[in-house]
UniProtKB/TrEMBL annotation:
The chain crosses the membrane at residues 75-94, 100-119, 126-148, 154-174. This is Uncharacterized protein. Keywords: Membrane, Transmembrane, Transmembrane helix. The keyword Transmembrane applies. It comes from Chryseobacterium piperi.
Length: 183
């Protein structure tokens, strides 16, 4: 949540003094803005007060934890599992890696899968939309997966399992509630 400096500028100096008290419950950015506004209004801070300000802001920033919803972690684990199955898929069909271009495509694909898993695990919200689009495009390949299931059952099962894991991950990511931040 960001702090609107314009709102703080409309407050009286007495109200802004509440922001800079040691027991302040306000966000570090709001505290910093309050100091800046008071300073611009002519309030002179002693070196001790400046040190207190820096300490208070540092403590507030350290206390502000990034909470990652458990669904992000579950989805990331499913995506990592899908990536591990992709590695198994590559091992199973290693003889098809005959050109440098094929190896390059495999590396890019694996990087994308594990990168999406990493971003999902960090709580990045837009990952679910990227995965949804990629999954939607991948569903066009479902007939090919079914044909693979007939010609090479192990590879077909790996591909179907990957698809199910990815669908499951996208569903879980869309179940993550919207973020709400309280002061």
């Amino acid at each position: 949540m960001s702090v609107n400096k314009n709102i703080l500028e409309k407050m009286s100096s007495a109200e802004l003094e509440k922001y800079i008290k040691p027991d302040s419950r306000f966000m570090p950015q709001a505290i910093e803005y309050a100091f800046e506004i008071l300073e611009a209004r002519g309030r002179v801070f002693s070196p001790e007060e400046i040190e207190k300000k820096n300490t208070l802001i540092a403590e507030k920033q350290n206390n502000t934890e990034v909470m990652i919803h458990p669904y992000h972690t579950k989805a990331a684990n499913l995506i990592y599992l899908s990536g591990a199955l992709a590695v198994a898929n590559i091992i199973w069909t290693y003889e098809s890696l005959t050109s440098a271009m094929a190896v390059f495509i495999v590396l890019i694909t694996l990087s994308f899968i594990f990168g999406m898993g990493y971003l999902a695990g960090k709580g990045t919200d837009w990952v679910k939309y990227v995965l949804l689009v990629i999954l939607g495009l991948g569903l066009f390949a479902l007939p090919i997966i079914l044909m693979t299931l007939r010609s090479n059952p192990v590879l077909g099962v790996i591909n179907i399992t990957q698809t199910v894991l990815q669908i499951w991950a996208v569903i879980i990511l869309f179940k993550v509630p919207k973020k709400t931040v309280h002061d």
